[in-house]
Design a protein that fits this description.
The complex is a heterodimer of chains A (about 325) and B (about 375). Chain A has 14 helices and 2 strands; from the N terminus they run αααααβαβαααααααα. Chain A is mainly α and about 325 residues long. With about 375 residues, chain B is mainly α. Chain B folds into 2 domains: about 25-40 and about 325-355; about 65-325, ABC transporter involved in vitamin B12 uptake, BtuC, CATH 1.10.3470. The chains are: A mainly alpha (about 325), B mainly alpha (about 375). Chains A and B meet through helix 5, helix 11 and helix 14 of A and helix 7, helix 12 and helix 14 of B.
Chain lengths: ~325, ~375
């Protein structure tokens, strides 16, 4: 470790962990809306892939060269459209939600790969969002470099946590979402339009999954790769479960999993050895998923927060 | 009464058969429109697909043999998914179960070498493959039954773990020492499944697959065990009152489901690749879900359904070469088929239920109270 102290490296690793928690935050917070309204959207993975491809295709000068902001917007719109498909299939057609989600995932994966090869010849690079130092706060020791020297999309993801909590607890629409997810028949009797509320929640969830996808190439990696989410969207759905449908706990989960995903870096920084030998990369890559299962087992108490009507299509007179 | 209602539905409504066919036609039309938008000739693309999948079997059987070969693991995986579905749990983990099944066979051959005669070795490899997949399915089954861990998420995580396990094994203990490539050594010849139509790779595993689907059908519909699996799948509360051990049958359903996927991995390994490479049989797990749903979640339905989807995937490879459209397009089309199929089947069921409601007053029709995240409403048997 030449010239840089251990502290500097730790700070850099922490900042990276925070930044790569961003796609988890966007997608999992979106899934909170969807699930609280009673729709288990397993299509997040596919929506993220489409969001990632469309956004970088818009933003990159190897694509449409429309700029980063339009790229983000295109990602959001793509996500919302796929959310609309999910809402139509699960709310209007009453289809099984888990399976519909797999359908969306296959669609998003196949379509993003096809378009990537056809439209971009399999190469897309972009000049991504640059870190913005927040005046004064970024001068804080340690915390300043971790928290306040990130790019705008990271700030946005962090701000979404209190915003989501506020929307769900303090607004009429938020209460309606939770009502149609807990007891759609009662909500219906009170005059809430169950179908409309569920559509809005699932479309918003889709838009946020699209945003999560956009954040990967535009604010994290600079490139698009085939199947670049690699199961991250599924982890986001799991995170909502053990976050007990609370935005704050979802944030804790996002940070935890981001750390697990970046385990390679942490192991290097902290020079962790197993029986005196370096730990094989594949073992490290396995850990987030093992962790996810363990956390799901221990988070079963959270089931009491489970929206009672999740996975149940609503129709009057049942 | 439930049984009676289903019979009526089946007989009275031609849409129940037509809906999936329409779904696939619609998906192909949408795919064609997509191709057109991308500046490719859809007719040329679909003709290439037909040639690659079936061609003219009287002149050249290669295409058809390729399609049949690929249908073998799909059939087994889909049959396994049917068992889970009928038991009221959703198994998305076939991909991992298939890997672990194949990996178990590689481990067996590394341990035994070529000291066994084919007559013992081949059946043993099938049993070991089944066992490997069964263990990988039993873990989420146990976690579901004991800790009510959502089995959809758990099986997805198990997939990723299996992929890494495969990589660890191929770069370490099971690696072929003679090359630098991450792959296992070639399996001993005694464990190979015979090829029926050389030079194509069509192998005798097709009989394993056909027998397994029929046996699974008999198990589910002609034995007490199968009856209990389906009872738990239909209504957990009622099954509990009837004295059926619900956790046991949930675990059993996922174990059998995983075992069939593992068997698929075993025959693919011993029949086609005969050594484990990284990227082995990738995609069969997810396609198997599509096949199972399209086969109306019935083991016998999995046979034609597997042939159809195998033809689509095999044809897509030819399409890629002819019109330069990446074969993953077919994955997108599969996604659309799934969306159409699940939507239309529920729609047809509701339509039939509405018609019948005029004659019979019914309570809750196709809902499973209390079955949680695995709230599956299997289609008609």
């Amino acid at each position: 470790m030449d010239e840089r102290t251990l502290l500097d490296v730790l700070v850099a690793a922490s900042a990276l962990t925070l930044a790569s928690a961003m796609p988890f935050l966007y997608s999992a917070l979106g899934e909170v809306f969807s699930q609280l309204s009673g729709v288990f959207n397993l299509g997040v993975e596919g929506i993220m892939l489409m969001g990632a491809f469309v956004s970088i295709y818009f933003a990159s000068d190897m694509g449409l060269d429309a700029g980063l902001l339009l790229g983000v917007l295109a990602g959001i719109v793509t996500g919302a459209l796929l959310g609309l498909v999910m809402a139509f299939v699960s709310v209007t057609m009453h289809a099984d939600q888990g399976i519909s989600g797999i359908g969306i995932t296959l669609l998003g994966r196949g379509l993003s790969t096809t378009l990537f090869i056809l439209l971009a010849d399999g190469v897309l690079l972009v000049e991504s969002f640059q870190p913005v130092r927040i005046p004064l706060l970024s001068d804080l020791p340690i915390l300043g470099d971790i928290l306040f020297n990130q790019n705008v999309m990271v700030y946005g993801a962090l701000l979404l946590v209190p915003l989501t909590a506020w929307l769900l607890r303090r607004t009429t629409w938020g209460l309606q979402i939770r009502a149609v997810g807990q007891n759609p028949a009662a909500a219906d009797a009170m005059g809430v339009n169950v179908v409309r509320v569920r559509y809005s929640a699932v479309i918003l969830g889709g838009a946020m999954a699209g945003l999560a996808g956009a954040s990967m190439p535009l604010a994290l990696t600079n490139v698009f790769q085939v199947n670049m989410t690699a199961g991250l969207g599924f982890i986001a759905v799991a995170m909502v479960y053990f976050g007990g449908w609370s935005p704050w706990r979802v944030m804790v989960g996002s940070l935890l999993f981001s750390a697990a995903y970046n385990l390679q870096i942490w192991v290097q920084v902290l020079d962790v050895k197993l029986f005196g030998e370096t730990i094989p990369v594949n073992v490290l890559l396995m850990i987030p998923y093992v962790l996810a299962i363990i956390v799901l087992v221990f988070a079963r108490d959270m089931q009491r927060f489970r929206p009672q009507a999740m996975n149940r299509p609503f129709r009057r007179g049942d | 009464m439930f049984q009676l209602r289903q019979k009526v539905v089946q007989r009275s409504d031609p849409l129940i058969v037509l809906a999936p066919v329409l779904a696939i036609l619609l998906a192909l039309v949408l795919g064609g429109i997509l191709l057109l938008l991308l500046g490719r000739d859809p007719i040329l693309a679909y003709r290439a697909m037909w040639d690659g999948a079936i061609g003219n079997p009287f002149e050249n059987t290669t295409s058809l043999a390729n399609t049949l070969t690929r249908a073998i693991p799909l059939m087994l995986v889909a049959t396994g998914i049917c068992v889970a579905f009928r038991g009221g749990v959703i198994n998305i983990g076939s991909e991992g179960q298939l890997f672990v099944g194949a990996l178990a066979v590689v481990a067996l051959s590394a341990y035994v070498g070529d000291s066994l005669p084919a007559l013992v070795y081949v059946p043993l490899s099938l049993v070991v493959g089944f066992a490997g997949g069964a263990i990988w399915g039993a873990i989420p089954g146990f976690l579901r039954a004991r800790f009510s861990v959502n089995e959809i998420l758990c099986t997805i995580m198990m997939n990723q773990i299996a992929i890494q396990l495969l990589n660890i094994m191929l770069s370490g203990p099971l690696r072929d020492p003679s090359t630098n490539v991450t792959q296992s050594a070639r399996l001993p010849e005694a464990v190979w499944l015979g090829r029926m139509l050389p030079p194509t790779r069509l192998h005798t595993g097709i009989f394993v697959a056909l027998i397994a689907t029929v046996v699974t059908w008999l198990l589910l519909w002609r034995t007490p065990i199968g009856y209990r699996i389906r009872a738990v799948g239909q209504n957990r509360e009622a099954s509990r009152y009837a004295g059926i051990s619900v956790p046991l049958y949930i675990i059993l359903a996922l174990t059998l489901s995983g075992g069939l996927a593992g068997l698929g991995g075993a025959v693919e390994l011993t029949g086609v690749s005969r050594r484990m490479v990284s990227g082995f049989a990738a995609g069969y797990g997810f396609s198997g879900i599509v096949v199972a749903i399209f086969g109306r979640l019935h083991p016998l339905g999995a046979i034609p359904s597997a042939l159809l989807f195998s033809a689509m995937v095999t044809g897509a490879e030819r399409m890629q070469r002819t019109v330069q459209v990446h074969y993953e397009t077919i994955i997108a089309i599969q996604g659309i088929v799934v969306l159409f199929a699940v939507s239309s089947s529920m729609w047809v069921q509701r339509r039939a239920a509405r018609r019948l409601a005029i004659d019979v007053s019914m309570g809750r029709s196709d809902d499973n109270p209390g079955s949680g995240a695995g709230d599956v409403r299997p289609a008609e048997a």
